[in-house]
Amino acid sequence: MKLLRVLAWIFLPFIIIFFSWRKLGRVARIGGAIWAGLVLLIIVIPTEEKPNVSAKRETEKVATQEKVPEVEKAVAVVDKGTAKTDEEAEKKAKEEADLKAKNDAATKKAYQKEVLAFEKSVYALEETMSPIMSTYQEAMTGLGNGTVDIYTVYEATENAKKAADHLQSQFYNLNVPESLPKDVKEKLNGATSDLSTAYYSKGKAFDAVLEFLDDQKPSHMSKFKDEIAMSDSFVMNGILKLMEAKEAVGLKLDAK
Q: Does the predicted TM-score (pTM) go above 0.90?
């Protein structure tokens, strides 16, 4: 019986002390309480298990090995997708460049057509003056060798004067296509201005001839020569600007 009691105090002191508390003395109560508390702590709080480091490392190693192929596969997919995107972007850029080149060529051709039409208008106006000038020159030659009278020369000179004034107005009002580039329009506008001024000076030259025929003063012929020289200078400047406009739109100039 005593043995059982001893064993009960060893393994179940917190139960024995509960039932024997009134029978124990002061010292026994304190000792029993301490022992019961220690045993209770041992039972309730298990010994902390140490982590299995080797097993953990092995698990991490396996997990890493399993993830590596997935990462490589993902990278391969990304690379393939990037290459496809780059190829599509390159194809689109080429298509846009081709379309732009096609549109630029069409625009350039349209500009050339407009400049050539303008040039044709200039030379068409010039041609209207040719027969009148031929008549004038023949009359002046005939006056010099005595085959033409002064009245005929006077009439031819008046006709030349009227033609020059008319062309001066025609060149001044000659329209330059608005669709042309700014620099080309500036050159063509400069050409019309120079040609208009050229025929203004030519009209003044014919006025001098008419005055000479009236009073035979040599000073009038001097004025005639100055005005004709100025007229020729403006004609050359106007034609030069027209050639520059043609070059600006890619037209080749005729070799002479």
A: no
